[in-house]
Structure formats: C-alpha cells, structure tokens
Amino acid sequence: MSVKNWFNESFPVDSEALIKISSEPIPNHLKRWWWGLGGTPLFMFIIQIITGMMLIFYYVPDPDRAYQSVDYITHTAKFGWLIRSIHRWASNIMIVALLLHMIRVFFTQTYRKPRELNWMFGVTLLLLTFMFGFTGYSLVYEQMSYWAMSVGTGIAGATPFIGGWIADFMRGGSEIGQNTLTRFFLFHIALIPLLTMIVIGLHIYLIRALGVSELKFPGDEKLKKKSYPLFPDHVFTELIIVTIIMIMLVTLSLLFPTGLGEPANPNVTPLHIKPEWYFYPVFRWLKITSLEVGVIGPMVFILILFSWPFIDRFFEKKIPGKEIAFWIGVAGFLTINIFLFWEIFGH
Ligand code: HEM
Q1: How much distance in Å is there from the Cα of 122 to the middle of ligand 1?
Q2: What superfamily does domain 26-211+226-275 belong to in CATH?
Q3: In the prediction, which pLDDT does 270 show?
Q4: What pLDDT is stored for residue 36 in this prediction?
Q5: Which pLDDT score, from 0 to 100, does residue 158 have?
Q6: Residue nearest atom 4 in ligand 1 by C-alpha distance
Q7: Which atom of ligand 1 is nearest to the CA of 210?
Q8: What is the mean pLDDT of each run of 10 residues along the chain (347 residues)?
C-alpha cells in the first residue's frame, strides 16, 4: 500500500465538502482591504498567540521576578526584544484594525437584520481585545503597568453594587500582589484567548451562514460577476495583506522596539500615570467626572454599543430615512477622538 493510500484510508477527507467550503462566493467589495478589514484582526490574533507562547518560555509570573524576566527577554534572550516588540505592535495594529472594521460595519449599516447577533459578538471581541491589552500591560510589572493595574482595579471597584466583589476577584484579595499577577497571567494567556477563539468561531460561523452583506458602488453594474471565489482569489488577496502587515510589523519593531521602564514600586506613585493609548478616552473621562459617574459612563456606552442594531431599528421606525444612525455615529466618533487627543496633549 502506498503512503498516499494509507493516509487516505487512515484520514478520510470528504473532498466534495472541502471544495464546497473553499469555493464560497465572496462579494466583490471585499477585494479592497478597507472593506474587508475583518481578516486583519484575525491575523493579528494568530501572531499574538505565536509570539505570546514564545514569550512564556522566559516570562515568570511572580512579583519579585516578573520585571527581571521581561528584562532578560528584552536585553539577553536571542531575538527576545524582537518577539516582544512584535507582540506589542501586533496588539496595537489589532486594535486599530478592529476599530476600523467596526467603523466600516457601523457606517455601512451591515449590523442590520439578520446580523444583529453578529454585531454583538463583534462588540464582545472588541471588549476581549481591550482586556488582552490591560492584562498584558500589567504583566510587565514596571512602574507604569503596576499603577495602571492599581488604577484599573480601583475603577472596577467603583462599579455600583458589585464593585467590591469585582475588585477583590481581580486582585485575589484586597492588595495587589502575587495573587493578582497569577490571575492576570491566567486571564491573559488562557481565559481571554479561549473566550476570544470561541467568539471568533461564532462570528465567522455567522458570516458563513448569513453571508457577507453585498455593498454596491457606482460602476458595479458593469461587472459581469457579483462575486469571486474564496479559494484561490480571496486567499491570495489576504496573503498580500498578510505580507504587507508582516513588513509593517517588523519595520515598526526595528525602528521603535518596546522599551522597559522602572521596576514597579508600590510605595512611589508616579507623577503621571498613563494607560495604553486606547484607554485614553476613558481615562480623560474619568479625570473630568467623579468616580461614580466615571464608571457608569463607559458602562452605558458599552450597553448602547451592544444594543445598537435595536436602537437603530427603533429610530428607523419612528423617523424613517433621516439617517439618525449616521449622525449619532459621527457625534460618537468625534467625541471619542476629542477625549483621545485631549488626553494626548492635555495634562
Ligand atoms: C477579533 C475580532 C474580529 C474578527 C476576527 C472579525 C472578522 C470578521 C470578518 C472576516 C468579516 C467578514 C467581512 C469583513 O472582513 O469585513 C466580519 C464581518 C462582520 N463583523 Fe467582524 N470581526 C471582528 C470583530 C468585530 C467587531 C468589533 C464588530 C463590531 C462591533 C464586528 C462586526 C461584524 C459584522 C456585523 C459583520 C458582518 C458585516 C457584513 O455582513 O458586511 N466584528 N468580521
């Protein structure tokens, strides 16, 4: 028996099903990156898993040794600095791509029936990605990450009714210490990745089951075909995007490698505590409000984001054709950007 026959017998594959899956028709607009941005965060997530596993070879989740282990990765381990920088840059690109993907879905209104649930899975993915960022930043155990952890758990503690419980659960007690780092490590490398994989699976299942909404552009009528095949055409388009992003990631990591601040010192509060840039709008909001209002604001915002397809449907029914959704979107986008730049340039 040839090796090929042996393999086919031991690992039978339904070739017809395979052809059916890989020839899924893709709408023409997804040939352009900015309309098909969903593939980019998926690729970044895969990069994060690979580089993250490499970092765990040396990372030690112990408050007395975490900082030294990151220092070792950055300055001694072969190519450690590159792996760490790619991990950090890919997280940033993932967030930018996610936000752009969400903006395109919002302004093309493709969250509308029957895709409401997929929008909600999307918002869940956005929140999970922010949690990746917050827990990952804390693991470094430098001054800034320690104090971001302290501020972050403090803010969570101000949640009405259940805040105390959430803060204790995050910290593993009343103080930041070994339990906190163990938990953040577990969240970062196991719980959040697992949840993200499940929700990405559901998101992509629904995209396949419901199909991608077809977007129409002027001149499209002239095109003979409305779609093109997933394999090889769309896979090749994605491969070109992957190559460009890889070049970008390595260039950014070479030009701006991730540095390391002072080691965490629980006794000295830094003059300016700064989270990662994607938390700036919330951070600025917290600075200008009381803690209670500060916590409720983002919660209301997330609730609105989750239920947006239904809020939009309500407006469309009450005041049809007035593009209320568009103007609310523009107002929300501008407000978030004002808060972002205020935090970048303000004190
Ligand atoms: C890890 C995160 C995510 C991944 C990997 C992902 C992946 C994808 C992919 C591959 C598509 C197909 C069309 C395209 O590429 O634009 C898509 C469509 C979609 N995504 Fe995402 N997405 C993510 C996060 C989000 C977020 C944050 C939202 C919104 C809050 C969202 C809402 C949607 C919706 C409603 C569709 C259907 C759009 C249509 O039919 O035109 N996704 N997503």
Answers
A1: 6
A2: Cytochrome Bc1 Complex; Chain C (1.20.810.10)
A3: 93
A4: 87
A5: 94
A6: 38
A7: 40
A8: 91 92 89 90 98 98 98 98 98 98 96 97 98 98 95 94 96 96 98 98 96 85 84 92 96 98 95 93 96 94 98 94 92 98 92
Domain ranges of the chain: 26-211+226-275
Binding pocket residue ranges, ligand 1, CB within 6 Å: 36-39, 41-42, 45, 98, 101-102, 105, 110-111, 115, 118-119, 122-123, 125-126, 200, 203, 207, 212-213
Q: Atom 34 in ligand 1: which residue has the minimum CA distance?
A: 119
Residue count of the chain, please give it: 347
| Distance separating alpha carbons of residues 269 and 266, to the nearest angstrom | 7
> What pTM was computed for the model?
0.95
Query: What pLDDT score does 272 carry?
Result: 86
